[in-house]
Structure to design on (377 residues):
């Protein structure tokens, strides 16, 4: 039986992989008062080669994950979502990834709790109509602005950035991470983190590493993250590219990992070259680890990084520029330290769970009061 002051929130995902929106729910579950908030997740779709990491992490935190849609045909997903919303008596529903069955599900409901759409990409803003959307939360300014342009009331478009849990990032993990990766302390380590999705331009990172390797014989490289379930052949192509560039013994591919924060402690330089993202959660994670970041101007990265102050920008699709910037950082330890320290300070002020979780809490409390009025109408 539910407590009278308990706020129940259902997050509806198109699918659960290892990404920023999944991390957001995990960190909300860790940082919101469990006596006050009950979080549940419903996922509608799964491919056989999608990682189960997020399912396991959420369940370890006591977050129930409804996967019944996996066994249902797509046309039955709206009815199941509607039934779950009704049975669970949720106060707020958060639709992530532009998940499409939510709107037909809302058409089936007699009581419609406030609906929040949460977007990690500008394109997701346009997946659904907006007549049931109470608020749209974008992780960066571009997404918020796109939502404001299509909502009846632009004030209902909000910006809440992705958060990081600073307690996960410990400098003392450096030695163990490098030992596991087989990297000596005098070998500079350059890394990349994410799903191997073509829009993340991993091939540009690998090509840049090949150029760096020619002039820096002690440099080592690592990609942390597994194949994207929709593009498994891309990961194979990237690994073959590394072999063809002579990096077989110098570039590690770890696959998906639950201990990304620990592995980041072992890096000396972090690189992110995506084209078509929202606000990359991994840049905030790299900042929490105090790393200097080389990045493309893409989506929310200009909000995360100040050129020459807390990171260095490079052009899109330009491995030669990336390689030159990496070499510059490897040759200048004080610059690495200064950039990493400034980004860490920005992350602490802007993206830490202590700063971001209260923004979600304020929204949930506001919307739950609306939901309570509907419930007792």
């Amino acid at each position: 039986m539910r407590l009278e002051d308990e706020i129940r929130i259902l997050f509806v995902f198109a699918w659960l992989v290892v990404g920023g929106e999944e991390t957001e729910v995990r960190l909300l579950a860790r940082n919101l008062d469990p006596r006050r908030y009950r979080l549940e997740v419903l996922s509608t779709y799964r491919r056989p080669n999608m990682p189960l990491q997020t399912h396991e992490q959420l369940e370890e935190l006591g977050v129930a994950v409804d996967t019944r849609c996996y066994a249902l045909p797509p046309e039955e997903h709206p009815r199941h979502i509607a039934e779950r919303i009704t049975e669970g008596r949720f106060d707020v529903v958060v639709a992530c990834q532009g998940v499409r069955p939510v709107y037909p599900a809302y058409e089936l409901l007699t009581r419609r709790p406030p609906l929040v759409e949460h977007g990690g990409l500008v394109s997701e803003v346009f997946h659904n109509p907006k007549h049931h959307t109470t608020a749209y939360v974008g992780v960066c300014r571009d997404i918020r602005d796109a939502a404001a342009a299509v909502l009846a009331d632009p004030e209902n478009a909000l910006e809440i950035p992705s958060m990081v849990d600073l307690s996960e990032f410990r400098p003392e993990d450096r030695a163990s991470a490098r030992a596991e990766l087989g990297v000596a302390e005098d070998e500079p380590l350059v890394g990349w983190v994410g799903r191997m999705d073509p829009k993340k331009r991993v091939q540009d990172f690998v090509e840049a590493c090949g150029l760096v390797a020619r002039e820096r014989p002690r440099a080592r490289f690592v990609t942390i993250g597994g194949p994207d379930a929709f593009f498994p052949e891309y990961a194979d192509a990237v690994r073959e590219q590394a072999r063809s560039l002579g990096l077989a013994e110098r570039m590690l591919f770890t696959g998906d990992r639950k201990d990304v924060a620990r592995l980041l402690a072992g890096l000396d330089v972090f690189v992110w070259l995506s084209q078509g993202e929202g606000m990359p959660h991994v840049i905030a994670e790299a900042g929490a680890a105090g790393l200097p970041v080389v990045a493309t101007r893409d989506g929310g990265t200009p909000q995360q990084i100040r050129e020459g102050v807390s990171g260095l920008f490079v052009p899109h699709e330009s491995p030669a520029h990336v390689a030159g910037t990496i070499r510059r950082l490897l040759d200048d330890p004080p610059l690495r330290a200064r950039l990493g320290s400034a980004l860490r300070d920005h992350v602490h002020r802007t993206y830490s769970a202590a700063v971001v979780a209260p923004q979600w809490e304020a929204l949930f409390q506001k919307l739950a009061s609306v939901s309570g009025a509907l419930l007792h109408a």
